[in-house]
Amino acid sequence: MIDPVSKAYQTIRAAADEACGDLLDPHVRVVRVGAATCGRSAGALELTDAFAEALEKHGVRAKLLEVGCMGHCYAEPMATLSAPGLPPTVYHHLNGFL
After folding, report:
1. Pairing of β 79-82 and β 30-34
2. For the chain, which terminal residue's Cβ has fewer other Cβ atoms within 10 angstroms, N or C?
3. What three-state secondary structure class fits 56?
């Protein structure tokens, strides 16, 4: 018999696994844009819009996410791109490049 705490944990864990499944799948492209306060003030929201437009224009299927602080405020706006078979790559000072 499973106790109520274990059952609740299993339910929460299953929901988290489903919600985050694409992010952990090495076969899914993911673009993470640093959108904390420093990123936003440097243009992260415009960068996110530019990525969305470019992905759609070129027919690239990728998960586009706004994430929190990436730890290097001086280099904002920043984005990390993950693609199958490649290591995640961080790009910085992305104003006007997309």
Report:
1. antiparallel
2. N
3. helix
Task: Give the angle 30-74-54 at the CA atoms, nearest 5°.
Answer: 35
Closest by CA position to 31, among listed 5, 1, 2, 70: 70
* Contact between residue 74 and residue 68 where contact means Cβ atoms under 8 Å apart: no
At 50 the three-state DSSP class reads helix
Three-state secondary structure call for residue 33? strand
pTM of the model: 0.77
Type of residue at 29: R
Q: Which residues are CB-contacts of 65 (< 8 A; sequence separation ≥ 6)?
A: 23, 30, 31, 32, 33
User: How many residues does the structure list for the chain?
Assistant: 98
